[in-house]
Amino acid sequence: MTFYAKSTRSSTRRPVAAAVALAATAALLAGCSSSGGSGKDPLSGDRASGDTVVVGSNNFAESILLADIYGEALKAKGIKVDYKHNIGSRETTYGLLKNGSVTVLPEYNGALLAYLDKNAAPRTVAATTAAINTKLDSKLTLLEPAPAEDKDSVTVNQETAKKYHLTGKSSIADLKDTAKDLVIGGSPEFQTRHQGLEGLKSVYGVEFKSFKALDAGGPLTRTALKQNTVQAADVFTTDPTIAQEKFVVLQDPKNLFGFQNVQPLVYKSGLDQKGVDALNAVSAKLDTDTLLDLNTRVQLEKKDPLDVAKAWLKSAGLD
Amino acid sequence: MNRFFDIPSDLQHSWLGLIGLHLREALLPVLAGLVAALPLAQLCVRFRWLYPPMLSLTTVLYAIPSLAFFVVLIDYTGQTELTVMIPLAVYSLVVLVPAIVDGVRSVPPETLAAATAMGFGPVRRYVQVQLPIAVPAIIAGLRVATVSSISLVSVGMLIGNQGALGNLLHDANIYHRPELAVNSVVTTAVLAVLADGALVLLRLLLTPWMSRGTRRRKPKAVQARPDAAVPALEDAAR
Amino acid sequence: MNVLHFVNAFFSDGAHWKGYDGIPARLAEHIQYSLLALVLAAVIGLPIGLLTGHYGRGGNTLALIATAGRALPSFGLLVLMFILLGFGLVPVMIPLVVLAVPPILVTTYEAMRSVDPPVVDAARGMGMGESRILLQVELPVALPLILSGLRSAAIQIVSTATIAAYVSLGGLGRYIIDGLYQRDYEKVVGGATLVAVMALATLAVFWAVARTAVSPGVRRGG
Lengths: 319, 238, 222
What we know:
The complex is a heterotrimer.
Chain A: H1 2-9, H2 14-35, H3 45-49, E1 52-56, H4 61-76, E2 80-84, H5 90-98, E3 104-108, H6 109-116, H7 125-135, E4 140-142, E5 155-156, H8 158-163, E6 183-186, H9 194-204, E7 210-213, H10 219-226, E8 232-233, H11 241-245, E9 248-249, E10 262-267, H12 273-285, H13 288-300, H14 305-315
Helix pairs in contact in A: 4-12, 4-14, 6-7
Chain B: H1 15-46, H2 51-63, H3 66-77, H4 81-105, H5 109-117, H6 122-153, H7 167-174, H8 178-206, H9 212-217, H10 219-223, H11 229-236
Helix pairs in contact in B: 1-4, 1-6, 2-4, 3-4, 4-6, 4-11, 5-6, 6-8, 7-8
Chain C: H1 3-12, H2 23-55, H3 59-71, H4 74-85, H5 90-113, H6 117-125, H7 130-160, H8 173-182, H9 185-213, H10 216-221
Helix pairs in contact in C: 1-9, 2-5, 2-7, 3-5, 4-5, 5-7, 6-7, 7-9, 8-9
């Protein structure tokens, strides 16, 4: 025991040792990685190679599926595609698009706008796109929005719906008095986003007892809601389990969650006109019912997203 | 379970591919850590005053959770394998320095005197006498570093699917396929046990003078000296 | 490096000190998880280690169990247990206990084996029974090493308990995971600092325990 005590007491020269150790490690690793043949560094390799399009996705199943759909559509036009799946939240992916590490990312227009400008409240899809374009980094552009919408929502479980007499016609505002007894769950980023706790408070005056950080509309969120660990949660509206578990999605009359059309966000210089046309052709055919159906195949029938993507492109004549 | 080896397409690797990736992400850092640890340990042996501050530094470094280490590095090295490997190399270094120092120090002064008397210079004495005698201690350190490195790679899943076999865990979650999580855990554990076994074998090959019989009769004699390092080694095995 | 700036910003923000997501609450959760896991691991590891060490049997089996325990990846085990068992403390406790049992078990066994045989023989010669020998002779002599095993286990638990946040539990890992998804480095660095400080505090606690619990005679010898 005195072993450690002694060493912590006489630690005056720690910075020197630290510097030596870290410098040595850094030097070694630099050598190792270049010889290790990992040419996957997105900050250098992909951008330089130019003609390969990197399609990225966020950390939830639908995003991966959409990335596969857009990516395969590009491949069908003879464009070289690399996938970079499960990157994380928008807070991370936006930065990677800006520096060109990712060329194409399936986005949701309203959520992207809220990220760029939380005070914007556009009334149409076109206005949403226009509002985004004024705020968007000059190296990025939005392509045509798909009719398919997948919104964040405040969704309550059956138990809560019964207890407080909430139906599909109830509004988020109806929670104003009861929210103080309820725990809401959502992705960690829901806690700090405007289209999250912040907006629920400022737009609807609804403040929950506490927030439980789960995942982006994924299995944690569903399980927590099902087991009543949380009484309300941010469930994505194209989630096939809403119907399965009889969750109740509350109305959003003040349009906090805005329009949430699927819309590819693109690093301009990484994609030529042929690619742009290919992605727009996909978006034109992608509607909400299709998305829900494709999600069901992946998440409930456990089909591989790439197979589902290819099959749909084929059936839509886009392959 | 019939889809045990059916790896989802978004991982872009076969099961064997993931294993290769996992081994590379886990073992390169251990190697880097070893190469850095040898001269550092020698410095600590040569300049005794350096060792206590070095030990306190390693204690602090152990205490940093791997995930936090990864996340902070993203700003500098992006969501890459390198971001996973740097912390693992640091952890390995931190395990190996005390192991090597204690191993080298365990060489009896009479042995050193004998080598000097035979006309060995300091370098030759280090390479041909001290290092070989320290092999059991070094390998003990390597075993801990390797096993913990293999286990920790999985956490890289959280920074953009950089966790090799660990990436299966996220897919198990989002696609409701528990068998993928079982695959991840079992494969990782088997890799760790195999790597550990390989190192034991390596020690047997490198220390032929330690006949099996002696080792069995007096296990203490071999392990007593590196004992001081054991707690430190265990600390890093997370 | 702007890490210090982040640390400063994190701790000086008043909002980080109150409520269910405040530092006191998260710290209390982290301590709760860590203590529970350590107690569970000790309840499993200590008696087995003491008995096998006392009788000098099963050393190889213990080594095997320890290797297997170390080989199991904590993070993978956590996700697997969550998938199988759902929310709650149990899926988090399993990987933490699996992580902590090997060092406790192995060190306790080694500590008991390191007790000088003549000492035990003398005790036996004085007519002490096996349980008295174990508790009154071997245990005090082995205590410093046993405590070092517990300390290793505790440090690993404190550091690893951060991953509990991935399956939606609290603790200091909350700041690291939330910071990752919110792209908030202040939180990540603040959380990591708290974990590191807690690990060092754990070391200090064990040092203090060793000062008071280990008999002066043993300490001088060691």
